[in-house]
Specification:
alpha+beta; about 300 residues; seven-stranded antiparallel sheet; single chain; four-stranded mixed sheet
């Protein structure tokens, strides 16, 4: 059987619990962490029986897998581990489960609601424009204890400050923030108000970028032509894009910077100011330090392009 056969049987060992499914089921959410594990984009271990090993909660994975099969979340009446289920869905990046649980239990996951509020309350990236000056607001989310940079939400121009981009990714970003030619310049003139969600994938030396419109909440229909222009340029320069063309990936020459490194870069290239910060606590227990995130709101009124 060919490795990429959609009907291929996949055997998984999740925390000591064995599961069998099809590649088609896993690929039903192509942007998920689980899909990237199965497709080989993320290196995985195997057990003695050649099953793909994932060191996560085995019993809870049953509900994740059933959702991928049925596209519905069917939970037994006596089920009580909603916090753990949400944490696992968050790890596998199955957003519909996370959103559904947030809707059912707004008080239980109010810290996540606060995080979402921080993410979606972004004002337009450009507030006023004068020669050489652009006001930009953006949000940085990082692991509180490890200092690992997780997510950045703001203008694509912010990414131009990163020195670690591989050459073709750097060229792509430079083409976006410094468009050449009258046609391309006209098409990309609104790029600075186009808010994107950048996720730093440290293990893969990659940043994923999902454009989310001018208000940081939903895709603005008026900017659809701009989005198409961005993805056409990405294809032309050999930048990897997602299956549904809703996301593109920027390669890094080295590991993604942590929060301290990134803030140092901002200090060197901009006059960025920290406006506010808060801690988003999603721990299942006091000892669990992996699920505390630091959410910071920043402002820049001048930026030096990374040519």
């Amino acid at each position: 059987m060919k490795p990429n056969d959609q009907n291929e049987i996949i055997e998984l060992n999740v925390g000591g619990f064995n599961y069998t499914t099809s590649r088609t089921t896993i690929l039903s959410y192509p942007d998920s962490m689980l899909c990237r594990m199965i497709s080989g984009q993320i290196p995985t271990a195997t057990d003695t029986n050649k099953r793909i090993f994932i060191d996560r909660d085995g019993p809870i994975f049953r509900h994740i897998l059933n959702f991928l099969r049925d596209k519905t979340l069917n939970i037994p009446e006596n089920f009580s581990e909603y916090a753990q289920l949400r944490q696992e869905a968050d790890f596998y990046q199955i957003e519909p489960i996370v959103a559904h649980l947030d809707y059912l239990f707004p008080d239980k996951f109010n810290s996540k609601a606060s995080l979402n509020q921080s993410m979606t309350s972004l004002t337009p990236a450009v507030v006023n424009e004068s020669p050489g000056t652009k006001d930009m607001y953006f949000t940085i989310i990082s692991k509180l204890h490890q200092g690992t940079l997780e997510t950045l939400i703001g203008s694509i121009r912010i990414i131009s400050t990163i020195n670690f981009l591989e050459p073709k990714s750097k060229k792509f970003i430079n083409c976006l923030v410094n468009p050449n030619g009258s046609n391309q310049s006209a098409q990309l003139k609104n790029l600075d108000i186009f808010v994107c969600e950048f996720k730093f994938m440290h293990e893969e030396k990659m940043i994923s970028c999902k454009p989310c419109g001018a208000n940081g909440k939903s895709l603005d229909p008026n900017l659809m032509s701009l989005l198409q222009t961005v993805f056409r340029l990405a294809k032309r320069l050999g930048i990897s894009i997602g299956y549904w063309e809703e996301i593109f990936y920027l390669g890094l020459e080295s590991a993604a910077p942590n929060r301290e490194q990134f803030c140092s870069i901002l200090a060197e290239k901009t006059n960025a100011k920290l406006l506010s910060s808060c801690v988003c606590d999603r721990r299942g227990s006091f000892e669990d330090t992996n699920n505390c995130s630091l959410v910071e709101r920043w402002h820049i009124n001048e930026i030096v392009s990374n040519n």
